[in-house]
Amino acid sequence: MTVCYVAAVRGNMAKAFELANTQVFRRAALPKSYTDLVGRKLFLFLLTMHGLGAFALITLGVIVTKNDVARNVIQPRIRQEIYRAGVALLPMFFFVALALGFLVVGQTVSALAKYGATDFLGYAMVIVVVRELGPLLAAFLVLARVGTAHVIELGTARALGEVEALEALGIDPVHYLIVPRVIGMALGIFSLTVYLIIGALVSGSLFAFLQDVPLTPGDYFKQLAESLSWLDFALLALKSIAFGFFIAIVTCYYGLAQPLRLDDVSRVAVRAVTQGVIVCVMIDALFILLYLVT
Amino acid sequence: MSEKNKNAGDEASLPPIEMRGVSVTAMRDASFTVVEEMDWSVGTGEFWVVAGQEHSGKSDLLMLTAGLMSPAKGSYKLFGNDTKYFGEAELAERLRVGFVFQGGQLFNQLTITENAALPLQYQKNITAAEAAREAQALLNLMELTPLADVTPSNIAANWRQRVALVRALILKPEILLLDNPLAGLGARHLQWWLRFLDELSRGHEWFGGRPMTIVVTTDDLRPWQNPRRKFALLRDKKFIPLGGWNDVESARDPVVKELLAAQLETAN
Asked: Which residue has the higher pLDDT, A151 or A4?
């Protein structure tokens, strides 16, 4: 019965791809709406990249050229942003580090111990937690908690005319609104990434050793230390700072640089978060290439 | 005569605001022209009232007058400097102009004192406490001291407008631009504003008795009746100087009549 059914299906498929039909299929152009859609998406992508690139360069320019301008205003705002994108998130990161340690590190340690591969433990942890999961998770959490707030605050400020008010007072909106957020988020994500990695590795080891894995804590941390190179530290710092910088750029760009009405703010916030995730993945891919090359 | 004194003398003789053949575009859409080919000259200490219906381009004209955008066509000189070339280097010139937005446009995250003191703190690079101390006198003058520590969303619109005035005056500008400042004000506040602007125009002691050049926009001419003020109308993308109050009252333009409608009804 089953054989008959399979034969019938094959027969029908053969009929479906008879030569004449296949030729018709090959000759037919893609429907215009699809090519339009792809073209529109491509141009939109290029325009967005152009806008984000220009905004990032303008912000960098302001950071460099206005380093000494109105320090009494900007420095407290930077401290405030570091608190918001760093210190204030510590309790949440403590919980996430515990969970990450339990879910990833603890399970990996016990699985490797089961197959007698505990010699690779340090290397596996460095790749999974230090290079990938730690920075990426920290970036996504800060994007969700603080990035969305940036878009909403700046979008509302823009829609209510506060940006024009700053300009009328001779205050550069990029200097006053963007620079503190960019610096605060870059430093915040860098610090939180370090805490998250340390927390995950320590809590993971605790969960693993609670399961009587035949590996002493001393050996575990020794393996970790031997698997880490100076490049890991340098690239971890660069990567987490790059995540912070670009998440802030994307969220501030959508909040400030896009002409907004108040009812646009929620739509733009969703788009900013989506593009923040895409930018993080692109930066991560770039760093994977760097690891492979070096 | 030294070169510096000569330049100062030249500037004193120049009108602080001088526009020749200026076209104004919308602030949020540069492709849309709101005023075409306007000529306008505002002398030191003059008080101008620019009237127009909604969406006639009053706010955009005021933004251009403040040097916040360049004219699409023509030449606009602010204190003798062409605004087409305004950049960071000309910031000092721009700060000689104070701007009060319609509705105030205060910073909602900051308290009233912080709002008032922000321009001072930023431009002079002083601490928040020092700036707040300097702003205190002006806050007192505007009867805002009891509200000093609350945020703008917690006070009435009448008072928000006064905070915007403090913020515009804190750097002691020479020109004050006000976008529809009386819109939505209660009767008591309206009287206070008219009296205070008149004092500024004559020379307020807080500004060393120097008469301030004032330009206001409005969609209701009635409160601005005063023989010392000059009037202009924005209509159909044209800037039409009307003259003094007597000229406004005798104008046959239907838009002017509409902007004076309530008074005419009363007269009838």
From this structure: A151
Give the side-chain half-sphere CA count within 13 A for A47: 7
Handedness of CA B166, B167, B170, B173 (dihedral sign): negative
- Give me the pLDDT at residue A117, please: 82
CB-nearest partner of A168 from B68, B121, B126: B68
Residue B238 sits at φ, ψ, to 5 deg, of: -115, 145
**Nearest chain B residue (CA) to A162:** B105
The residue of B105, B127, B165 whose CB has the most chain A CBs within 10 angstroms, and thus the best one to mutate to test that interface, is B105
Q: Which residues of B touch A161 (CB under 8 A)?
A: 101, 103, 105
Q: What are the per-10-residue average pLDDT scores of chain B (268 residues)?
A: 49 83 88 92 94 91 92 92 81 91 92 96 94 94 93 94 96 95 92 95 89 94 90 93 88 82 51
Query: Considering the domain boundaries, does residue B95 fall inside one?
Result: no
Asked if residue B242 belongs to a domain, the reply is: yes
Question: Taking CB atoms and an 8 Å limit, are B94 and A170 in contact across chains?
Answer: yes
Residue A260: the pLDDT is: 67
Name which of A73, A164, A168 is nearest B122 (Cβ-Cβ).
A73
ipTM: 0.87
Chain A residues within an 8 Å CB radius of B168? 168
Query: Scanning the structure block, which residue is given the tokens 């922000």?
Result: B118
- For B173, the closest chain A residue by CA position comes to A169
Overall domain count for chain B: 1
Judged by CB atoms closer than 8 Å, whether chains meet at B121 and A71 is answered as: no
Residue B135: inside a domain: yes
pLDDT given for residue B208 in this prediction:
86
In a domain, B18, yes or no: yes
Residue A143 has pLDDT above 90, yes or no: yes
What pLDDT is attached to residue A263? 81
pLDDT at A20: 47
pTM here is: 0.83
CATH of the domain at B112: 3.40.50.300
Which residue range is the domain that position B164 belongs to? 3-83+107-267
